[in-house]
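Report of the visiting student (M.T.), summer placement. My assignment was to run the structure pipeline on a short list of targets and document each run. The first record concerns tRNA 2-selenouridine synthase.
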Amino acid sequence: MFDATADFKKIVLTELPLIDVRAPIEYEKGAFLNSVNLPIMNDEERRLVGICYKEKGNEEAVNLGNKLISGSLKDQRIKDWTDFLAKHPQALIYCFRGGQRSRISQKWIYEATGQPTLRLDGGYKAFRNFLIDALAPDNISSSPLVLTGYTGSGKTDLLLEFDATVDLEGLANHRGSSFGNQVNTQPTQINFENNLAYRVIQHSSKAYKYMLLEDEGRNIGRSYIPKELHAYFKLGELVLVHVDFDIRLENIFDEYVIKSQLEYEKASMEGCGLDKWASVISNSLAKIKKRLGGECYARASKAFEDALLSQKNTGDLTLHMVWAGILLKEYYDPMYKYQIDNKRENIVFEGNTAEVREYLNEKSSLYL
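After the run finished, the structure tokens were exported:
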């Protein structure tokens, strides 16, 4: 009745719900997709039990835990678990090593309901190691096929048309450039890796010949791709999409101004809005000041300030095209030209969006 499972692959492929009974401070550092934190001990209770364990041993620590979590408090925590299990009867329980906390949770649930639950054998640590192993290049069967192109080429939107894509920017919750911050914060590094591993395992299960990816640096905002995995992605064949400057500028304007402002406006109840968006853009400009050069930075900053003032006075956003155009033409394009020229020998196909779409469609339909 207190069984455990180590079928981690099944958990990933079916995205089974998980009950994490660790303390909130542990959960916040890293957890798993589809998990919910319903702790058996809160942070303070865990701290006290930990001190007792170090000073007096396991038996006394367990006794203290039972004393701290008793009566109505124990009843409430059992109710939290059973309410979740009523909605998600296949849910599994885990703690850090699959030991006492998850076993005690299983016991209490069984005593309250008569229903057995499964726990993760080895807990968080064992499942986390399984996911880390999944990101090792030797364990990935498909070959990386990497879409590259100048900023504003619509690479992400194009790749999202195909099931064989692994959306690195989506997993990192970042647009992948100096101005790519989203309203919602990025995941912790551990959660980014865990979620990436989920996607890689699910991709591998479908036996695609190619894994479609966007050309990314190792860092996507504050998230970073594991070193060996990033090196593996860099060995992939490259597909170069060509998009006219005017269209790319429209795309940047739409994404970094119109859509981004809407995101901040929707979050205005949390103290965001236009001023918050403007602060983020201004800070992003300041971060690349040295790379822009003093003169270019001054022009871009002035253009941004003029556009923001115009928007506040008239509601017209079009002047934002000016600073976006400066960045695109004088910062991003030279940088990407240099990078693409250095990768020229790895390019297996290039064309406009329609031509690249057709090529990727053919490649994404191939299986091992």
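Residues 139-243+346-364 form one domain. The radius of gyration is 25 Å. I thank the supervising group for their guidance throughout the placement.
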